Amino acid sequence: MKLRYGDKFILSDNKGNTWLITLKQGGEFHTHYGIIDHDALINFEYGDEIRLKGGSLWILKPTIENYILKIKRKTQIMYPKDIGLLILRCGVKNGDYVLEVGTGSGALTTALAIAVQPDGKIDTYERREDFLELARKNLREYGLDKYVKFHHMDILKAKLKANKYDAVFVDIDSPWLIVEKIWRALKGGATAAFLIPTYNQLEKLLNQLDNYFIDINCIEVFYREILMRKGRIRPSFRMIGYTALLVTAKKVNRDVSTT
Amino acid sequence: MKLRYGDKFILSDNKGNTWLITLKQGGEFHTHYGIIDHDALINFEYGDEIRLKGGSLWILKPTIENYILKIKRKTQIMYPKDIGLLILRCGVKNGDYVLEVGTGSGALTTALAIAVQPDGKIDTYERREDFLELARKNLREYGLDKYVKFHHMDILKAKLKANKYDAVFVDIDSPWLIVEKIWRALKGGATAAFLIPTYNQLEKLLNQLDNYFIDINCIEVFYREILMRKGRIRPSFRMIGYTALLVTAKKVNRDVSTT
Amino acid sequence: MKLRYGDKFILSDNKGNTWLITLKQGGEFHTHYGIIDHDALINFEYGDEIRLKGGSLWILKPTIENYILKIKRKTQIMYPKDIGLLILRCGVKNGDYVLEVGTGSGALTTALAIAVQPDGKIDTYERREDFLELARKNLREYGLDKYVKFHHMDILKAKLKANKYDAVFVDIDSPWLIVEKIWRALKGGATAAFLIPTYNQLEKLLNQLDNYFIDINCIEVFYREILMRKGRIRPSFRMIGYTALLVTAKKVNRDVSTT
Amino acid sequence: MKLRYGDKFILSDNKGNTWLITLKQGGEFHTHYGIIDHDALINFEYGDEIRLKGGSLWILKPTIENYILKIKRKTQIMYPKDIGLLILRCGVKNGDYVLEVGTGSGALTTALAIAVQPDGKIDTYERREDFLELARKNLREYGLDKYVKFHHMDILKAKLKANKYDAVFVDIDSPWLIVEKIWRALKGGATAAFLIPTYNQLEKLLNQLDNYFIDINCIEVFYREILMRKGRIRPSFRMIGYTALLVTAKKVNRDVSTT
Fold first, then answer.
1. How far apart are CA A226 and CA A232, in angstroms?
2. Chain D interface disruption, residue of C88, C186, C218, most D CBs within 10 A
3. Average pLDDT over residues C11-26
4. Which strand (E) or helix (H) includes residue B148?
5. What is the CATH number of domain B66-258?
């Protein structure tokens, strides 16, 4: 399959550097390996090598991880190590209706949209218009905006339909304020997920969750790279030590506090 | 939505114990909380509470993680922390064709089938018939067998179509023996993923991969639970310290060794 | 150097099992490898092999880690991974005066006594008499009791000399209650160390420390074993995921709050 | 105790920056907080505050960790998390004779010298003269050189006395070449420790160790900082993911291979 204008691809130098690029008529891409004329790539395929003066670059198929990590961003984003597990843990799949509170730059939205397509939908809420517009632009760029409804609104003021969503993802400052609200919006027995940055927030959230949800669970995911150099295989000296705590909980159909 | 015969649900005691159950006419489920008569649940919904003499149980919606962890198994299975990240990293989504080498009990197969449905397909190879039959039974039980073609065959003897697959997952003892074979079967620029249990295997695999693939990457994923007890929030003393190393690599269209 | 009555040694089966033993006239040691008659070991040395019907055992020199891990205990003990770092971080060495609050079974006391001998001393406080007596017995057994003064007293009621200690170690339930007290007892510029089991306690302690100490630091230490089997080297599947948080802070000579 | 010329102290700004300084007549210390005239500190004590135009600095007592981390270095050094545990695991204490192979900059030597004083001694071997001279200078600066004998010699050519050392620490490129040599130099039942940077080296070392030692053990130590900000306590985003693998093994009095 030849590349066509509008196609997305990853350029890799096989040294740890990658770029996500859209093929555009008349486009140019400048690297320290040399300049790439987009039009000259029109007969290339995924997997092909581009030989430049400074060395070779390769054309790769973008993955969901590429879409997440290369997203244009104004905010801290969620990482694949966390997103991947949460999608399995919340059971997000084709046909699901998912509520996202705190769109940010749209990194999680991207992964959720891919998971629920072709038959599902994401409702995402963000009170900052600049974030929401960026996310909308990002999702449109990825061809995923048709699976997402963007709501420019403070979730505190939103009216949510009861028992509608198969899963809820919350990434806002004070998630404890909306526990009852998202409990109502979730289907019975479904999962809510919360991204929690500090230990202090954990206790506040727990105190609220305890009244509405069961199976309250909190994890953190670590991730370490092993450097694959011949004869010198070893872990990377540097490692991301923390991103956030991931809390999940299951909706039960009555206040736990009243049972 | 009322439960119907054939529906699957999770029973949880909100104390860390869960069971995956299929509602069957005349069925009974025995717990130390008491006996549950399946027929009595026919008017229940996800999220509902079942009050027994020994305490309450709740009916929850099964997630992909539940399907993975509750699978009937004869083998070590892959875990959600690893599967979730690999699906994003390999870009597995609706419509993809995926090759799995080493079906085992079908835990990864389950997650892949959910990711590629409704339009994609999994080809999975397993040389041990008992494993393959168990996996087939597991996938049928989950209603996912229509997305999977089960091959009872040693991958070394299999004839694979060139440039067919959007992603390949390999979980066998000597993956270095099939590097050239899966390279050929993959689409250009697509990702191969390998599950590697020991450090010794890592070097052998690297030596082969280096000739056919670029962006050879190896990671390990850790996962720690935080116990959410009021006033006593702390990490769990026990932790899974290791499952396997995850190697991924990108197919380029010619032998790297000959470029 | 031949073993003599009263000498301590480690017996190892080179399969992960070890025992700390004191050579006693007429003593017997029963293992599933066979029975060892203590008197028969009187001509043995460290490093020697004992051949029994069921296999060999080896006589090893006990280390500080052995003393810590093999201690007779009624309480949770501190682990070498934490103790080793704290001794360096607090600068404990020959000649130091060290205050320990919360003796427990005496595991940390043992390591501290070895670090400050021959010229230093440990003052250790414990309000539970049974714990203190066990610790005293343990230290006497190890020949270290001459470096330790055991105080059966609630630290809240203790009168501590000002500016006396080179380092303070605190392992009690409510350490925030004694921050001012240990600040007074420490020498200027010296280090206090706290063992903190839960996230909830962390905030309470921080709020107190902030008034008296600078360089407030908190860490956790992980530790993973790599199994050294020929051809199958890999990390252990099981790992201790958590023991406690280690907080250290430096005494400055006036309340920070009043500067 | 007033500071005197020649005394060492740590300056801290309580914001994460520290400096190790020796008080010198006529000395000056320049920081972005202002200039400190050494002579003006002659009446100060550990714990005192120095008020400068740009903010306060505090005078703290140097710890063993400070000596290790602030050492003048030309090489990668060992870190306190690893050194602290190894000292306990090898049982290094007052009076011991310790062999160090690969002096480097003297960071480990410093910690060992403090552990064995006042009655023990370190023999350290280094084939690079510039490293050895730096280490000698560092230990002299710390007042610890009297506990160390520095050998400028390739360990392969060194003649070591048999059964002399209570512990051996090895940090060189090809440790498998000297396994038999250090086995001979160690006392029976005592511990050898090896610092191993890559997975490839691990297998080579294991193959040699297996013939002479028992209880071959390998670990890695992780270490994560928790940032203690009021109301926002959370782990640090950055973490050191790896330094080296730590292998320890116990000398038995005959070749294991011949038993």
1. 10
2. C88
3. 96
4. strand B148-152
5. 3.40.50.150
Q: For D173-212, what is each residue's pLDDT tens digit?
A: 999 999 999 999 999 999 999 999 999 999 999 999 998 9
For every residue of A184-243, DSSP letters joined together read: HHEEEEEEEEEEE-SHHHHHHHHHHHTTTEEEEEEEEEEEEEEE--TT--EE-SEEE---
Integer-rounded Cα radius of gyration of chain A: 21
**Closest-CA residue in chain C for A203?**
C200
% of chain A residues with pLDDT over 70: 98
Closest by Cα among C36, C80, C75 to C58: C36
Rounded distance between C-alpha atoms, residue D224 and residue D138, angstroms: 28
Subunit contact C111:D118, Cβ cutoff 8 A: no
For residue B197, is the peptide bond before it cis, meaning its omega torsion is within 30 degrees of 0? no
What is the radius of gyration, based on Cα positions, of chain D? 21
CA distance B34 to chain C (A): 34
* Chain B residues inside the 8 Å CB shell of C241: 224-225, 235-239, 241
Among chain B residues, CA nearest to A252: B47
Nearest to D93 among C114, C215, C219 (CB): C114
Residue C258 has pLDDT above 50, yes or no: no
Q: Write down the pLDDT at residue C255.
A: 56
Q: Are D151 and D124 in contact (CB under 8 A)?
A: yes
Q: Most B CBs within 10 Å: which of C234, C238, C240, as the mutation test of the B interface? A: C234
- The domain defined by C8-62 folds into Vcp-like ATPase; Chain A, domain 2 (3.10.330)
Sort residue A83 into left (φ over 0), alpha (ψ -120 to 50) or beta: alpha
Question: Residue C167 has which token pair?
Answer: 């380092």
pTM of the shown model: 0.95
Summarised one tens digit per residue, pLDDT across range A82-97 is: 999 999 999 999 999 9
Backbone angles phi, psi at D44, to 5 degrees: -85, 160
Q: Looking at this predicted complex, what is its ipTM? A: 0.96
| Count of alpha carbons within 13 angstroms of residue B112, beta-carbon side | 32
Band the pLDDT of B259: cuts 50, 70, 90. very low
A233 with D200: Cβ contact below 8 A: yes
**Residue D239 Cα, gap to closest chain A Cα (Å):** 5
Work out the average pLDDT over C93-98: 98
List CB contacts (< 8 A) between D216 and chain C.
228
For residue D218, list chain B residues with Cβ-Cβ distance below 8 A. Answer: none
DSSP letter for each residue of A150-169 = EEES-GGG----TT-EEEEE
CB atoms within 10 A of CB A76: 15
Residue B52 per-residue DSSP state: E
In C, minimum Cα distance to A199 occurs at C199
Calculate how close chain A gets to C7, using CA atoms only, in Å: 42
Residues of chain B with CATH 3.40.50.150: 66-258
Antiparallel, parallel or unpaired: β C121-126 and C148-152: parallel
Maximum separation of any 2 CA atoms in chain B, in Å: 72
3-state secondary structure chain C: CECCCCCEEEEECCCCCEEEEECCCCCEEEECCEEEEHHHHCCCECCCEEEECCEEEEEECCCHHHHHHCCCCCCCCCCHHHHHHHHHHHCCCCCCEEEEECCCCCHHHHHHHHHHCCCCEEEEEECCHHHHHHHHHHHHHCCCHHHEEEEECCHHHCCCCCCCEEEEEECCCCHHHHHHHHHHHEEEEEEEEEEECCHHHHHHHHHHHCCCEEEEEEEEEEEEEEECCCCCCEECCEEECCCCEEEEEEECCCCHHHC
The CATH number of the structural domain formed by D67-258 is 3.40.50.150
The letter for the amino acid at D116 is V
| D227, pLDDT greater than 80 | yes
Residue D254 has a pLDDT of 77
